[in-house]
Automatic annotation (TrEMBL):
GO terms for biological process: phosphorelay signal transduction system; regulation of DNA-templated transcription. Keywords: DNA-binding. It comes from the Bacteria. PROSITE patterns: OMPR_PHOB. InterPro entries: OmpR/PhoB-type_DNA-bd, Sig_transdc_resp-reg_C-effctor, WH-like_DNA-bd_sf. Residues 1-89 form the OmpR/PhoB-type domain. SUPFAM superfamilies: C-terminal effector domain of the bipartite response regulators. The keyword DNA-binding applies. This is Winged helix family transcriptional regulator. Residues 1-89 bind DNA. GO terms for molecular function: DNA binding.
Amino acid sequence: MRINIDDMTVYIGDKLIDLTNNEFYLLTLFVNNRNRLFSHNEIIDTIWPGEMPVSRRTIDINIARLRKKLGSYAEQLVDRPGFGYGYVE
């Protein structure tokens, strides 16, 4: 997987993965902080700071969509109930 921050693109092999802005921000948050888990509140404060209230369900939906798009890399995007979400190697 290749992530280009400047043009907000993600490639798996030669295939461009079509991510929404929020999916891209989530992925880069997790990949840049590998092996760290983020609570829902930490994710909200980082991805949606100062915006209208964001529900936990919004996070769950964005992460579910991201997992579908990541193919085999989705296995590294983990959810540990009671701890949070993260990207583990």
